[in-house]
Amino acid sequence: MSEPIRNRLSAVRRDFHCHPEPAWREFYTTYRLVEELERIGVDELAVGADAYDPADRMAVPDEERLEDWRERAREWGADEDALECMAGGNTGAVAVLDRGEGPSIGLRVDIDGLFIEEADDVDHLPAAEGFRSKIDGAMHACGHDAHMTWGLAALEAIAESDFSGRLVVFFQPAEEVSGGGCPMARSRFADDLDYLLAVHVGLDHPTGEVVAGIEKPLAMAHLDVEIEGESAHAGKAPEEGANAMHAMGTAIENIYAIPRHSDGMTRVNVGYAEAGSASNVIAEHARMEAEARGETTELMEYVESRFERIVRSAATLHDCEAEVDVVSKSPRADSDPELAAVVADVARGVEGVDRVVERADFGASEDATFLMERVQAEGGLATYLIVGTDHPDSHHTPHFDVDERSLEHGAAVLVETIRALEEQGASTSRSTAATGGTR
Amino acid sequence: MSEPIRNRLSAVRRDFHCHPEPAWREFYTTYRLVEELERIGVDELAVGADAYDPADRMAVPDEERLEDWRERAREWGADEDALECMAGGNTGAVAVLDRGEGPSIGLRVDIDGLFIEEADDVDHLPAAEGFRSKIDGAMHACGHDAHMTWGLAALEAIAESDFSGRLVVFFQPAEEVSGGGCPMARSRFADDLDYLLAVHVGLDHPTGEVVAGIEKPLAMAHLDVEIEGESAHAGKAPEEGANAMHAMGTAIENIYAIPRHSDGMTRVNVGYAEAGSASNVIAEHARMEAEARGETTELMEYVESRFERIVRSAATLHDCEAEVDVVSKSPRADSDPELAAVVADVARGVEGVDRVVERADFGASEDATFLMERVQAEGGLATYLIVGTDHPDSHHTPHFDVDERSLEHGAAVLVETIRALEEQGASTSRSTAATGGTR
Amino acid sequence: MSEPIRNRLSAVRRDFHCHPEPAWREFYTTYRLVEELERIGVDELAVGADAYDPADRMAVPDEERLEDWRERAREWGADEDALECMAGGNTGAVAVLDRGEGPSIGLRVDIDGLFIEEADDVDHLPAAEGFRSKIDGAMHACGHDAHMTWGLAALEAIAESDFSGRLVVFFQPAEEVSGGGCPMARSRFADDLDYLLAVHVGLDHPTGEVVAGIEKPLAMAHLDVEIEGESAHAGKAPEEGANAMHAMGTAIENIYAIPRHSDGMTRVNVGYAEAGSASNVIAEHARMEAEARGETTELMEYVESRFERIVRSAATLHDCEAEVDVVSKSPRADSDPELAAVVADVARGVEGVDRVVERADFGASEDATFLMERVQAEGGLATYLIVGTDHPDSHHTPHFDVDERSLEHGAAVLVETIRALEEQGASTSRSTAATGGTR
Amino acid sequence: MSEPIRNRLSAVRRDFHCHPEPAWREFYTTYRLVEELERIGVDELAVGADAYDPADRMAVPDEERLEDWRERAREWGADEDALECMAGGNTGAVAVLDRGEGPSIGLRVDIDGLFIEEADDVDHLPAAEGFRSKIDGAMHACGHDAHMTWGLAALEAIAESDFSGRLVVFFQPAEEVSGGGCPMARSRFADDLDYLLAVHVGLDHPTGEVVAGIEKPLAMAHLDVEIEGESAHAGKAPEEGANAMHAMGTAIENIYAIPRHSDGMTRVNVGYAEAGSASNVIAEHARMEAEARGETTELMEYVESRFERIVRSAATLHDCEAEVDVVSKSPRADSDPELAAVVADVARGVEGVDRVVERADFGASEDATFLMERVQAEGGLATYLIVGTDHPDSHHTPHFDVDERSLEHGAAVLVETIRALEEQGASTSRSTAATGGTR
């Protein structure tokens, strides 16, 4: 790849990097995506509520929590027209190239950041080179800045080529809360796709390595808990309270101890918790944000049901009431080996890629599975591929960073795979499915 | 008391009631106090840093948390000069009447509100009659609005009388966090007081009842806890984290179980807790705001030391580090029976008071004990009296309210006690102390 | 007291000391008491089921647990006739002196040991001098060996005197489990008592001190818990179990954290717990032996009801079932000041007694309150007195021991009090009560 | 198989079934094995300390716990000579057939029962047909009664055949505590084995199914915990205790919550726990029997190290001291596919076997891995095979039972596999190893 392109990829990624925005608050991010997409020129561009049905969204924060971020996007330079399109937190976009005969190919990249405070020591490259997060307590700590860069780069390269077929790029919001996968999967843009490519950076695979298809993205549920007790004066009448703080403590202690399951891997985490008001008041209220995962959808549901029983019992134990709200859920879906084989073949020919793994396990969850499931259900093929990067620390930690050499690798793998699929044409199974067959 | 005075007491109290401000953020409250005090006319008026040494303050929030409240006070009408005096959160005031020969008498009232959301149902009088808190999540739920009203009313009545002596009224901020008692007690205004009266409304005593002196205000410590762990991806590598959320849960479970002590009453509460960031991240950080109380200072310290061991061990158990910060402490001090007897005598003659209790136990804590301890150490007498009120629900709960008939009772008891002390002159013990004796 | 008597008291006490037997298993102890009582010669001697209605007993262990102890008593020399009288674990005895006109006076001493392993280091006198417990894991760690010695000594002295009246000595079993007080109080021997003396050694009062009457023996309930879950293979299918072990852990964590109560002192303890079978089996079963105490009967019931909710909720949380059985309960009862005054007067004249306390608080529980309550309800007077002893370590610990000088003190105080009451005659209130009056 | 043989297998198994004996207490069981082996006639028979070095044993209970079981075995008819051979709890035996040229083949069966109370309802066949466990609280709930029956049956069939080679049958004690595998593996009987067969019944495979080789027997450690605190009177001075009961509760709550590991399966269980003495004593002592498992030896050690930190921290939190003793450990070992292939081939020809699985996962642990590891390290081949049985409820539960049709299947598979291996001769790799090569 040429120096200018390389620099351009880096510049785009760094702009995204220093403006991390959490789920359904990707206002500046979407604005910048639109700006780039308009520059590139696409045949159809749908933003926010035009891209999907807002009612299909999951884990949407209330308007109050959106407002600060909208204001901040405005300060960062997002224009009013763009913000208007995203009223109600309908962020994200879908861009389409419609270039005549040929297969219909989807590419899905996610765009949201995380509530993690980015490291600011000199050993952390974004800090040293001045593109550290501009907002304390939020960070692109999972590489979605790289994903968007790939989405734009692939689209631009294909747009400039003689590609024949249909390319749909999903710039999906709210992946971290499993909130945006479902609306994208149910949108008209997901109709009749022959192929779907979803892509992730890193995941402990080094720069130069490509995994052509992953298995076992964990099924996941996001769970919000509210516990209501009764306040009382902690000194004068502690026995009069119904202690929501204590109920929360009992719940936390037991949630992590949900028994392992002999059918396979499970995960559970309480990632955010808050309770009470002041030190001399028995806490009236507590809330927790948690998640349950499983190697299969059944295993996730096993964890979820245990979670609910624990929370309710812990509340009863302390004379409180609890509500557990399933904010969002994503299923498990595996990569199709036929499609992964195409990716693997292509990757072997990409400069800088020195190791190609056909299939690997995946210990995390992903709501790309909604799109994969939809495409596979209609007879198409889907794969979830990983482009390795030397990341200095784990995903979701303050020192996470992307080795920018992988920006080129990912762009090249995606572009070349799309061209290879163009050559191959629509998959047989899809055609069958279209005429009534089922997978 | 005349109808107009009665109405005036109610109006003042309701103004304070609907503008509740938490510890060291009593900007509007202090502004209104100053306005009233200037109207009354006093011989000396010291606001904020003029009233005490800011370095003696405890439990002061950081500037960021002050700012919102200063802004709100401005919106509510506090003028810039007043706010200027309170820069850095130096709220509260001391007012002095200096009227020639006679005893030196202190009166202490507290002024802060609580982080409790006030009830808004029609059964709650402040809601029904339109003086409910103007700010969600804060409330005068401990009657400090009545206390201030008494302080102003007593001062006004004495100012208009032929009183001879010195009257010092402490409008003390930050009682709820035991933060303002110490600076007031160390200030020059607490020098050479012959008598100190501290007063509280309600505390489960009905309208018409007066308790002349209380025993056993619990000694108290406010404790802030920070737990540091390490974040990790909850799905991909839960074992890599050091889970501050889980450490917090273990701490909460065990803090409430600190063994009861055979030497007397103890209390412990975790009143506020927060941990983590997002549901898919193992929590890196947790913090708690807690308190330890004891019937004696030693018992409070017993609870405090167990608290610290529990928090540190819970952190170690989960591979985290914890810090426990003792934000503030207040000692135990008892009422002097000689002074309580004066109050009791006076109260028996006050209209509307139908029951006088010489002494009662007190299940809560109070940083008035700093002033009491200072005055008693220098040979003066101190009492902490309660003016009963029919309160519909407990202190520190959303439906707490004051029966306004007790406004008159309290004002009358205070004014008449001050006049009785004027007649009695300086206490003998004080004179002795002044000439070198000790109590 | 003469040297031979002193030696005799010591010998008797040491024989009891090295044969400690737990509640309702005092087979050897009762046998020895009977032997001594027969030697002394009494007017009526009732053993076991002759002394009380077995159906009134509480906290009786099952036959299997009795059997070992009966066998051991046999080995220690208890004869078959004596054991026959105690079939079904009906241990203990009541001895009566009926000597004509005069007041009817009750004396209650308790006789059971504890499941504590006695210290065997040379610093522990019973070990050094060869009268350490003959059975591992059981011990007279609360001084009941001294109590029985006093009971026998007082009876012997009165029997040999010209006493006129009725003396009833209750050798009560099963005090430690609050099991024997109720049947003794309901027996015919408790009818029409003018006075009741109950006595305890030590309780942190030193040798030479006597407390004439105590207040606030805590009300108490003994609680047995059974938790039923479902076993499973811990390696192959941990999710299939319902983990009674885990439910027990959750219960323990929360039981100790039952909120302190503003009305007064409470206590709670899980003193014995056992769960599970083998390390590779998810525990199917757990059981706990616990107690709840309160400064009043209401406070004890507050703790008890919280206890039950916690245990049930902890079981539900882990998909188990729990049963809470209230094994026994004892009320609160206070000493009558008139009677305590008699004891105090007498004690001041006893050789070796150098300090007399009229009244003291009592931090523990006692089922002597059943007898006290009965006597007081019928118009008699009751007191619970303490004879101090320098005990090297706390009651209920392996190094507890009695300073044998207090054996004489206690015997003298009891004998002289009985003589003083003989002189005083039946209390007025009793006479009134007998003719229809009420207290 | 003929009716008489079938009946004989059933009779032998039922005799073992109703005499279950836990680890290192298999006195009657070993006596019966010796009786049967002497009847069959073998070339070498080593019992107890003759079969292995007692110092290599793990998880041996103290003499006191052995004594009851020895006494019971005597009552059940074990003769003194046999019991003599097992002094010190050296149970189990090794039997050898030495029949000239040919491969050296090991067969390992385990012999111990579990501390589980067997069901006694009529739906439970052993109860209905009168061979339910004769001792309350112990049970053959894992099918070792069937394993021994197979060992004897195979030995008898081979003894009566023209087999040429060496057959060594390990009747291994203490499998359930991973205590007997190591001494057997280090004994001279494990020298120079070409093949090792270990066998288990059931494990959720139905009657008629055979699994020729299993993978992933979890590595395992048995952990014993002692917690020492300080006792105190729970009513009088709860603050003076250091509560071992509470420390145990905190430990249990947290042990089950050891984070899942991204490298693979882990397990943890506290299978037995006991604490305290009586309800009115703060518990001085607690002990727990637990286990840690992992898909690899490293994962097991991860759990073990977390376990230790939790236990120590929970003790510190409650001012107690804890000791964690690693009683025994067993490594992971996988079946060799070459040997499993032989078993699979043979099984396909056995009457009644209708499904053969080449390889399956195994969710439990097994100390047969010691023998497998030893044989594999010396160049031999090992497999762990499963003979299915319709078991009405899970292993390690009160209703577990074996479908006796599988007794024939297992015996036939083992006999035919031994004959097939005789034909095949020593494995090549072993020969290589014997001459200096390594695997």
TrEMBL record, chains A, B, C, D:
Q: Which UniProt keywords apply?
A: Hydrolase, Manganese, Metal-binding
Highest taxon of source: Archaea
For this UniProt entry, what's an example GO CC term? cytoplasm
Pfam families xrefs: M20_dimer, Peptidase_M20
**One of the record's GO molecular function terms:** dipeptidase activity
**Which residues does the UniProt record annotate as the domain Peptidase M20 dimerisation?**
221-315
Q: Does the keyword Oxidoreductase apply?
A: no
Q: Quick one: which residues bind Mn(2+)?
A: C142, H144, E176, H200, H396
Gene Ontology biological process terms in this record: folic acid catabolic process
Which cofactors are reported in the record for this sequence? Mn(2+)
What does the cofactor section's free text say about binding? The Mn(2+) ion enhances activity.
Against InterPro entries, the record matches this protein to: Amidohydrolase (IPR017439), Bact_exopeptidase_dim_dom (IPR036264), Peptidase_M20 (IPR002933), Peptidase_M20/M20A_hydrolases (IPR052030), Peptidase_M20_dimer (IPR011650)
Q: Answer yes or no on keyword Metal-binding.
A: yes
Entries under NCBIfam families matching the protein: amidohydrolases
Q: What is this protein called?
A: Amidohydrolase
Record the organism.
Natronococcus jeotgali DSM 18795
